[in-house]
Design a protein that fits this description.
Number of strands: 11
Number of helices: 10
Strand content: 15-25%
Mean pLDDT: 94
Strand order of the largest sheet: 5-7-3-8
Low-confidence stretches: none
Distance between the termini: 31 Å
Shape: elongated
Helix content: 25-40%
C-alpha cells in the first residue's frame, strides 16, 4: 500500500499455550528491561467475539486454579467379587468428595469461596445491556439447551465475573469400552476453579484443601486422601477507558462500522497479567474469531470474513495507537 509503518513493533511468539506455556513468564520477566524495553502498550489476539456478527474488545479474564484430588487405598488393584464390601474403596471416596464440590446449579460448595468476590456495581450492570448475546444462539452452539440460568445476563455473569468449578476427569479408573470388575487401588480426580476479582489463589487453595479434608474426615475412611494444586493462574481486569482500548475501539469502528462490545472472558490467558506487571503497560485483548469457531475442539475454524477483516483491524489499530496519546 506504500504506507509507512506508524509504530515500532516487537513480536513475542510462543507455541506452547495448550501445554502451559512453560518458561514464557520467566523469559518476559528476564527481558522486561532488555528486549521489551521501551514498550508502550501490548496487544494480544487470543480470544473470541461474544457472538458471530459484532466485534468486541475484552478487558477482563478469569484466573484458574487446578487441583488433583488423590485417594489411595490398598497396595494393588483388587477383584470386586472377592473384596467388594470388605474394604474402603478409593473410587467410592473420590466420587463422594467430587460430588461435594459443586451443586447442579453450578454453585461452588466450598465455604468462604465467594467472600472475596468483587460485588456487582450499578455501573457494571449497565454493561450487560445491548450485547450481541442470546440463549437461543448459545443453545444452538451447544447443540442442546443445557443452559442453567433463565436470564442471559446471569449466564454472562457466571461466565465472566463469578467463580466456577468444573470437574474434568479421573485418572487411574477403568474407562475403556466393555466391562471390568476391578477396584482401583489409587484414583486421582481432576478439577479446576475459575477465579475472579478479588480472589487470591493462595486463599482459594487454602479453602479448597480445608473443605476436602473436613469432608473426607466425615467418611471415616481408612484410605489416604491428598489434595495437590498443580496450577494457579491469576485473573486480569483492566479499564476499557484506557487510551489503548480507545485506539482499539476506533480501529474497530473504522473496519466494521460499529462500536465494539466491551466484554470479559471466562477463560484464562495468564501471560496477559505477566506482560502488564513486568512491562508496566496496558494490555488490550483484540479478538479476531467468532463465538462459533469451536475453540480447542474438533474442526476448529476461522471464517474468511474474520480473517480478512482481522488483518484490516490490526493495521487500523496500529495507526490508531500512533495517533493516540497513551499517557492520557
Amino acid at each position: 500500500a506504500g504506507i509507512e509503518m506508524p509504530v515500532n513493533l516487537k513480536f513475542c511468539w510462543e507455541g506452547m499455550e495448550e501445554s502451559g506455556s512453560e518458561g514464557l513468564d520467566a523469559i518476559i520477566e528476564a527481558e522486561a528491561d532488555k528486549w521489551f524495553k521501551g514498550t508502550d502498550v501490548v496487544c494480544i489476539s487470543d480470544n473470541y467475539w461474544l457472538g458471530t456478527k459484532k466485534p468486541c474488545l475484552t478487558h477482563g479474564l478469569r484466573g484458574v486454579s487446578y487441583f488433583h484430588l488423590q485417594v489411595e487405598g490398598p497396595g494393588a488393584d483388587l477383584h470386586s467379587g472377592v473384596f467388594g464390601g470388605t474394604v474402603h474403596e478409593p473410587m467410592v471416596d473420590l466420587v463422594h468428595l467430587l460430588a461435594k464440590l459443586v451443586d447442579n446449579s453450578g454453585r461452588i460448595q466450598v465455604p468462604g469461596i465467594y467472600d472475596q468476590v468483587m460485588p456487582v456495581s450499578e455501573a457494571e450492570e449497565r454493561t450487560y445491556e445491548g450485547l450481541e448475546f442470546s440463549h437461543t444462539a448459545l443453545a444452538s452452539d451447544l447443540k442442546r439447551d443445557v443452559i442453567i440460568h433463565a436470564e442471559e445476563r446471569d449466564t454472562l455473569k457466571h461466565r465472566w465475573r463469578f467463580p466456577t468449578l468444573s470437574i474434568h476427569g479421573v485418572e487411574g479408573a477403568f474407562y475403556a469400552p466393555g466391562d471390568k470388575t476391578v477396584i482401583p487401588a489409587r484414583v486421582r480426580g481432576k478439577f479446576s476453579l475459575r477465579t475472579v476479582p478479588n480472589m487470591e489463589p493462595e486463599k482459594v487453595a487454602q479453602l479448597v484443601k480445608r473443605y476436602l479434608q473436613d469432608e473426607f474426615a466425615k467418611l471415616g475412611s481408612k484410605n489416604k486422601m491428598t489434595v495437590i494444586e498443580t496450577h494457579a493462574g491469576r485473573w486480569w481486569y483492566s479499564s476499557p477507558n484506557h487510551p489503548n482500548f480507545v485506539a482499539g475501539s476506533r480501529a474497530t469502528e473504522k473496519v466494521y462500522g460499529v462500536k465494539p462490545d466491551l466484554t470479559r472472558e471466562g477463560g484464562s490467558i495468564p501471560v496477559t497479567l505477566t506482560f502488564e506487571e513486568n512491562l508496566g503497560v496496558n494490555v488490550l485483548l483484540l479478538p479476531m474469531g467468532a463465538a462459533d469457531d469451536g475453540a480447542h475442539s474438533i474442526n476448529e475454524k476461522i471464517d474468511k470474513r474474520n480473517y480478512i477483516q482481522g488483518i484490516k483491524l490490526l493495521g487500523a489499530y496500529l495507526h490508531e495507537v500512533a495517533a493516540t496519546d497513551m499517557t492520557a
